[in-house]
Amino acid sequence: MILPDTCIWIEYFRVREPVHSRMSALLERNEVLACELVFAELLQGAKGRREVEILRKFWESLPKASLDGSLVAAGMESMKRGFLAAGVGLIDAAILEYARILGAEIWTIDKKFLGVLPLEIRYQTER
Q1: How far is CA 99 from the centre of its chain?
Q2: Rg (CA), the chain
Q3: Chain-centre distance of CA 106, in angstroms?
Q4: Domains of the chain
């Protein structure tokens, strides 16, 4: 399963290539996990009722990546690894924690997040 971060979803919804076509293929194969924190960020930036409705439909239809206690674990891991000093926030730390626990790969284009993301859980788009 693939766990896209907020920047990937934004690229997808803006129909920017190559993200849009790759994400579309993953969605068709049911290989995408939705992260509550990512969708909360997307909703926070939604511009109008239409965008909110689109986001709600995606949220309702996708399998979810969330686990009790994982935010606390993400905060602890972030503190240990110095994510905040590297410009990586709690949401990215939580995405990393979800991916580790669920055995998912993370898809991001965020350079700061890529800087702390272990290679073994990065989604490799060149497949």
Answers
A1: 9
A2: 14
A3: 7
A4: 2-65+104-121 (3.40.50.1010)
Tokens of 120: 């073994």
Residue with tokens 């509550």: 36
Pairing of strands 64-65, 34-35: parallel
> pTM value?
0.91
Which DSSP string corresponds to 15-70? T-TTHHHHHHHHHHTT-B-EEHHHHHHHHHT--SHHHHHHHHHHHHHSPEE--TTH
pLDDT per residue as tens digits for the range 48-83: 999 999 999 999 999 988 777 788 889 999 999 999
The letter for the amino acid at 78 is S
Q: 108 φ, ψ to 5°?
A: -145, 160
Q: Go through the chain and tell me how many residues it has.
A: 127
